[in-house]
Structure formats: C-alpha cells, structure tokens
Amino acid sequence: MTLLYDLTATQPSPESRFHGGGAYGEVLFFKLLEYLKDFRLVCYYDSKNYINPDILERIKTHGIKLYDITEKSITQIIEEEKIDRLYSAMLNLNQNIPLGTIEVYTTVHGLRTLEMPFDPIMLEYASSFKEKLKYRLFMGVAKNYYLKKLHTINGRLVTDERINVITISNHSAASIKSFYPETARRNIPVFASPTFDQLDNYNPVAESKKLSIDELHKEKLCEKKYFLITSAARWAKNALRAVRALDELFENGFAQDFKAVITGVTNKSIFTKELKHADRFVFLGYVERDFLDLLTEQAYAFIYPSLNEGFGYPPIDSMKYGVPVAASGSTSIPEVCGDAALYFDPYSVSEIKNRLVQLLEQQIYDELVYKAKLRYEIVAKKQKEDLKKLAEYVIR
C-alpha cells in the first residue's frame, strides 16, 4: 500500500505558526516511520511555508519521496506514484483532492466554527474598524446566512462518504453527529490527540535544552509566583476575560506577591487598556518551546479559559509537572482533565476569579497538585496506546 501524507497540514495556519492540528500531524508522521516496512510513504508540502526541520531530516534519512505542491498538483502526484490512500491531519478540500479515485483519511479536530462561531469578546480583538464591522455583521443581520454557510463548509468534509473521518475526543465525535445527524450511523473512530511525549524514538535535530531558572529571572519572574495563560492572540482562547479576573484578584488584595504571565500576545493593547495593575502582568509574544516548558513547569497555576476545544493539550502539559489547573468547563476540556481541574464558566469573570481565590487555599492547591500528576499519567497512557492504534488504522 502506498500512502500519500499531507505535510501542509503541519505547516503554519493563517492564525498561528504552531497549532494543535499541526503538532498532531507531526507526531503521527514520526510514528508512521516505525511501520515503513509495512507500507510505502510519499509526502507533499508547500515550500513557501515553514516546516519542522526534523521532518525534512527524517525524509532524507529514510529516502521518502517529497513533493512540493507549488510545483506539482496532488492529482499529478497520485497518478505518478500510484497512490492508494491519502492521509491529512487537517484536510483542505481547496487542494482539489480527487475524491473517489483513492481512499482519503483525515482527522477532524472539532467543529469550533459551528460550536463557537462568534462571541462579543471577539470585538475586542478586531484590528481595524473594518474587521469590527465584519464581526458585528456576523453577530447581527448576517448571522443566519453565516451559520448556514459554515454548516455547508464543514458538511463537505464530515458528510462525504468518500472521506474516512477520525476524531480526537468523544465530545468532537458527538458534535459531528449532533450537527450532522446523517452521520449518526457512520463509524468515526476516536483516538486521543497525541504529543511528542508519546514517541519512543524521537530525537530532534536540534535538541531542546533545559533552561535554567535564570531565564525566568530575566523576565523578573520568580518560580511558583505567577499564574500562566497561553495562546492569547486568538479570541476563542478567551484570555481577555481571564486577564480581567486576575486584575480584579489583584485589586481585591489577593496574591500580593504574584504576577500573571500571558503568552502568544500579538496586540498588547487589547489587554492593557483597562488594567488597574498592569505592572503585575508580563505580556509575551510567541515563545520558543523550551522557554514555554520552563514557564509551564514553574507556574503556580495554569489558567485555561478557552471557549472551545476539540481536545486541549495545554492543561495536560501543566499537569505533567504537577501544576494545578483552573479551566473552562466547556466542550472537550472536562473529558480530558477529568477531576484534576477547577472548572469555571468561561463567560463569567467573577467565576474565574472565584476559582483563582480557591487556588490560593493551600489545602485545595495541594489536592490539585496530587490529582494533576495522576491525571497526566492516565491521559498520557491513553495517548500512547491510541497513537499506536491511529497509526495502524491509517495504514491498514
């Protein structure tokens, strides 16, 4: 069997250089290398975009054919290489994939655009008057038209019987069947979304270094004396409401020697224009993986206010280090975090603040440290088992 693997799904999206679906595609690619004796692998990518250099190194090492879709169409690749099956971690139907001529497998990570198409908070993230007007139209007079269009776009992927759909959580599987009842009888396998921790033989070309505490001190941070929020550039991650809750916490005299670290910030003014305690916040843009690991490990607690997730890696990344988590109780997050997080209504600033106050209670905090470590082991074990099942499902 010859498998064509879509590496464009691992490359930057319009929203961010690194994204959950891309990381998923990278991990599965490296896992599939363990099975090369069982199938033939051909890949394609876009040479105009960044790609993980580790992928290119493995392709060279294993003699895998790699095509550039800016030079050759997917149809041409399929014909030349006599492809039997195509897999994409995020299938892009605009790539004109010839459905029906080969087997097509893809992972649908969630239906965020249907579950959470808009929220008033998105207006705060608008970068221009034109964008703000567009958002107002989406939430107002054009709402029904927009929702119908989104339903049609998503439906092209999940209802087409020529596409074998995989998903990453029970929430996402049920969401597909809820929005598209015609899929109720379809077999949609669920495999927990994996991370690089589940790969046994992955050695990056550039080994990530363990950073010292001195790197924290350069940002005027002390270990276990800050709350951490990540991915702040996207409105659906809901960082703004959590920042407001933290500012209220500081205003009320709690956590007097604490700070708050917010990463992924592309427009600082979104967060700072109404802050009373701006000096207690550290706003960072994109941070490298090794520094993010250090920030995660040394945080007092991780705050995850996301409005919508298909799986949700970051809380588990924190639990790996025994860092307590306060998280949104929406979508897949409770399924992943189990009883190891303090949940809140992500739309309620006061409830987010309530959970922050609870985190400052030593007994509650210590219990969450204990639960976090247990939960990480449970989830990591399932991720590892499911990664093996996923790889075998894709090639057999």
UniProtKB/TrEMBL annotation:
Residues 223-366 form the Glycosyl transferase family domain. It comes from the Bacteria. Gene3D superfamilies: Glycogen Phosphorylase B. The keyword Oxidoreductase does not apply. One of its GO terms (molecular function) is glycosyltransferase activity. Transmembrane segments: none annotated. GO terms for biological process: lipopolysaccharide biosynthetic process. Keywords: Transferase. InterPro entries: Glyco_trans_1. This is Glycosyl transferase family 1 domain-containing protein. It comes from Treponema ruminis. The lineage of its organism: Bacteria, Pseudomonadati, Spirochaetota, Spirochaetia, Spirochaetales.
